[in-house]
Amino acid sequence: MTQVSLKDLIVGARAGLLVSFPTDTVPALAAIPEKAALIFAAKQRSQDKPLILMAASAEDLWLYVKGSENEYKIWQEVANKYWPGGLTLVLPASQRLPKLMNPIDPTTIGIRVPNSAIARTILAQTGPLATTSANFSGQPPLQTMAEIEVQFPQVLTLGTTECQEEPGMGIPSSVAKWTGINWQILRQGAIKLDISTNNQI
After folding, report:
1. pLDDT at 192
2. What whole-number distance in Å separates Cα of residue 125 and Cα of residue 2?
3. What pLDDT is recorded for position 162?
4. What pTM, to 2 d.p., does this model score?
5. Residue pLDDT, tens place only, 2-14
6. Does residue 68 contact residue 181 with C-beta atoms inside 8 Å?
């Protein structure tokens, strides 16, 4: 599949095809949540490595998680501080979430709003997408649309003329998981996280 325009990529994603586009961290391999299995197959990815649900705004993501009123308040404070940006929050998943996103443990989901105008433009029109880095599992993330086009010829990649914006950092997002009482840092990535004495990050 050759590189496509922004419009064609959005149409393709909505139709359930695999797509790839730049983000503020590393380029994403993405599909609508109901087609998450396509990502696992393309990457030869183990089922125990869940995908991230990415959206244009935090409001688009809260439906897919569930918690107490107090937990939502804590989560929203963190989202307000770091989003859009390179932080993925792993939170308890709601019933809305297709189990295909996290086949082994469908009770949790990683969510993120990228600090990338092009990514948010796409996500605003497709709705939240299942995403991960564009690479074969266990290999370093690919950094350019051209590399992705070669390694994943079946994927609709965003044409380079459409990508004239700030390049991604080349570093995956940081990941913090809510344990029910505090945060656990699973990966230090694009944002350096520190857990304070009152369990804030």
Report:
1. 87
2. 21
3. 62
4. 0.93
5. 789 999 999 999 9
6. no
Contact present, 22 and 168 (Cβ < 8 Å): yes
Q: Looking at residue 108, what is its pLDDT?
A: 95
Query: Can you tell me the mean pLDDT for 63-75?
Result: 96
Task: Tell me the sheet residues that pair with 156.
Answer: 19
Strand partners, 79: none
169, 160 Cβ separation under 8 angstroms: no
- Token readout for 34 is 């109901």
| The token pair that represents 100 in the structure block | 């295909």
Cα torsion 200, 94, 132, 167: sign: negative
Token pair 């993120």: residue: 112
- pLDDT of residue 167 exceeding 90: no
Give CA torsion, residues 147, 110, 125, 171, to 10 deg. -30
Q: Which residues does 9 contact at the CB level (< 8 Å), separation at least 6? A: 19, 21, 122, 156, 157, 158
- What confidence category does residue 170 fall into, taking pLDDT thresholds of 50, 70 and 90? confident
Q: What is the pLDDT of residue 201?
A: 86
Q: What does R_g of the chain's alpha carbons equal in angstroms?
A: 16
What is each CA distance from 66 to 82, 96, 110, 184, 200, in whole angstroms?
20, 10, 12, 18, 19
Give CATH for domain 3-187.
3.90.870.10
CB contact at 8 A, 55 and 111: yes
Contacts for 68 with CB less than 8 Å, ≥ 6 apart: none
